Amino acid sequence: MSYIEIRNIFKIFGPDPQTALQMAKAGADKDEILAKTGHTVGLHDVSLSIERGETFVVMGLSGSGKSTLIRHLNRLIDPTSGEVLFDGTDILAMSISELNAFRRKRLGMVFQRFGLLPHRNVINNVAYGLEIQGQDRKTREDAARNWIERVGLGGYEDKFPDQLSGGMQQRVGLARALATDPEVLLMDEAFSALDPLIRNDMQDELVKLQGELHKTIVFITHDLDEALKLGDRIAILKDGKLIQTGRPEEIIMHPADNYVRAFTRDVNRSRVLRARTLMQPISDDDNINASWPRIADDMRLEDILPVALATNGSMSVIDGQEKLIGILSKEQVIAALVA
Ligand SMILES: Nc1ncnc2c1ncn2[C@@H]1O[C@H](COP(=O)(O)OP(=O)(O)O)[C@@H](O)[C@H]1O
Ligand SMILES: [Mg+2]
């Protein structure tokens, strides 16, 4: 069983969801149900498995059900039908006190609008969760200082939120979420309000931190570039339905339908595709030329390109153990770029 299991979730918004639920289960879609019953389908039979330690991105257009989905994980929303399991525990069966403890100890949340407390300085914002947990002042301030340092805000401990830029405020939001050492970070469009350059910095920061922390992160975005950069896997929602789940390369190489394809059209493929996806795996009788440049299997197309252009032959692809696993030709590299 996976760490987080979402099983056959339907969420119908409106005063009398059962009729609409039966229609949805019988195959009616969101538009039809809205027209006939006035009820909104938030999620339609969504099942997902999220592994411990992965960054799982949920992507889709506005209104596709992303926030509704993430709110099921902290039970801000209960499903109309379906199950949510955390580490084997049914969170829908938790009592209020169990649920509060679960949220406080195991989940960290980062919000789009930062959600900082305006009358507290940076250190007291970051220490907030630990204060709720009842930790003493020294413990929580030490932890807060550590996290402030790690998100690159050392020196700003005594500033107040309105003295910080948006990017810095979101670093505080991230430090606050991490300070309680949660197992899971829930991030709903956490970077969407930031300017593109700052947003890029925050994405880099999150990738760096996650390389050290290996949290389970559920990250929501409407931006495919962001999804591809951050996600180990990506789930794509449309009108409450799960359209595709896959690794970034799978989404780019094999979009499930035109909705996904429309997202992928403007993506910079050279940042996503890697040698191992493009190469021809070698079999025993392949003729490897020792003079060919050797490239790592996780090398991205943008970094392979200069090597490809400089060689007259092909390239040998090697894995982490320096074992030869494939061949990549200049033509394959160019074909992948223009596809
Ligand atoms: N509390 C609510 N009451 C009624 N409809 C809602 C509510 N929350 C969300 N919805 C509807 O559910 C659908 C999914 O919304 P949401 O999950 O917020 O989408 P996203 O986060 O992808 O933009 C939308 O059609 C939205 O209007
Ligand atoms: Mg949303």
TrEMBL record:
Q: How does it sit in the membrane?
A: Peripheral membrane protein
Keywords attached to this Swiss-Prot or TrEMBL record, sorted alphabetically, are:
ATP-binding, Cell inner membrane, Cell membrane, Membrane, Nucleotide-binding, Transport
InterPro entries cross-referenced by the UniProt entry: AAA+_ATPase, ABC_osmolyte_uptake_ATP-bind, ABC_transporter-like_ATP-bd, ABC_transporter-like_CS, Gly-betaine_transp_ATP-bd, P-loop_NTPase
The terms describing its cellular component in GO are: plasma membrane
- Tell whether Protein biosynthesis is among the UniProt keywords: no
PROSITE patterns, per database record = ABC_TRANSPORTER_1 (PS00211), ABC_TRANSPORTER_2 (PS50893)
- E.C. number, please? 7.6.2.9
Q: Which CDD domains match?
A: ABC_Pro_Gly_Betaine (cd03294)
What are the recorded GO MF terms, alphabetically? Answer: ABC-type quaternary ammonium compound transporting activity; ATP binding; ATP hydrolysis activity
Q: Which parts of the sequence belong to the ABC transporter domain? A: 4-264
According to UniProt, the reaction catalysed is:
a quaternary ammonium(out) + ATP + H2O = a quaternary ammonium(in) + ADP + phosphate + H(+)
The UniProt entry, under Pfam families, shows: ABC_tran
| Compartment annotation | Cell inner membrane
Which BP terms from GO are recorded? amino acid transport; glycine betaine transport; response to osmotic stress
Keyword Chloroplast applies: no
Subunit note:
The complex is probably composed of two ATP-binding proteins, two transmembrane proteins and a solute-binding protein. The complex is probably composed of two ATP-binding proteins (TmoW), two transmembrane proteins (TmoV) and a solute-binding protein (TmoX).
Q: Please give the family membership noted in the entry.
A: Belongs to the ABC transporter superfamily.
- The protein's name: Quaternary amine transport ATP-binding protein
Q: Which organism is it from?
A: Thalassospira alkalitolerans
Q: What is the lineage of its organism?
A: Bacteria, Pseudomonadati, Pseudomonadota, Alphaproteobacteria, Rhodospirillales
